[in-house]
């Protein structure tokens, strides 16, 4: 069993990574159904929250069926981050996660996200103050370092643990790498193997198959996997990994009917949550993976991502069943 503070999780839990414009309540709910053990919100700007920006406050919505759920926040100003804790607590999440890893320029330029990797003392100070502000467990998501020459993740993790961080998720790239090259899990294993570490250490980056998840567990000895890009438009990934762990066998891929049904539910939930226009637009990024591998599918995908009314998109789904219903995935 793995524990984040008092939250009990199974051995080697699978966590849905916080992803901007992806891990909203509808998608988190689908991933939870398919076996995700912990889900995280999209990252939320502390400055946006304290200014009551609509886009930021909407991200605080969580559903009971998602639990345990973490709300992830980012920022570099101590006062703003502490005010954010007070706002976030009202949504009653199970975990508050701090993003010290986002590599995007507009975040980094403000000294937040991975930008804080240039100032480890500030990173520790912020974490310490936030732990003292709330009874909820504070966890951290970060990267190996700012660049290859400044990797001190073993020391950083130790210092975060010492000020009360309850778990750490580490993406196996530096900020300089962005998402290029291969994720390096060895430094994450060094954090886990540090005899001083006793909080869970979760690995993140390049977990694109059940085999890779197993490698992270068995070869690198990490406590769990935080999975991001492999789940976009494919919430079944969690179930497939767990089945592989149990049996050593791959689950058959979902059928056309199952894919259409999942896409249909996803779109309807998104519309119910954020309205027709936004629901349609923000679900589009998932369709490539929902229907990946179907030959001669371009025309249908194009219709899905250009149709502007819900009824029209649902009609495209119906036509996919009619046209490709018998297609067998290998």
From TrEMBL:
Q: Which UniProt keywords apply?
A: Flavoprotein, FMN, NADP, Nucleotide-binding, Oxidoreductase, RNA-binding, tRNA processing, tRNA-binding
Q: Which Pfam families match?
A: Dus
What are its E.C. numbers?
1.3.1.-
Q: Which residues bind FMN?
A: 72, 141, 171, 228-229
List the active-site residues.
102 (proton donor)
Boundaries of every DUS-like FMN-binding domain copy: 15-304
- Cofactor section: FMN
- What GO molecular function terms would the record report? flavin adenine dinucleotide binding; tRNA binding; tRNA dihydrouridine synthase activity
Catalytic reaction list: a 5,6-dihydrouridine in tRNA + NAD(+) = a uridine in tRNA + NADH + H(+); a 5,6-dihydrouridine in tRNA + NADP(+) = a uridine in tRNA + NADPH + H(+)
Q: Which Gene3D superfamilies match?
A: Aldolase class I, Putative flavin oxidoreducatase, domain 2
Q: Which domain of life is it from?
A: Bacteria
Q: Which family does it belong to?
A: Belongs to the dus family.
Role noted for this protein: Catalyzes the synthesis of 5,6-dihydrouridine (D), a modified base found in the D-loop of most tRNAs, via the reduction of the C5-C6 double bond in target uridines.
The name this protein goes by in its record: tRNA-dihydrouridine synthase
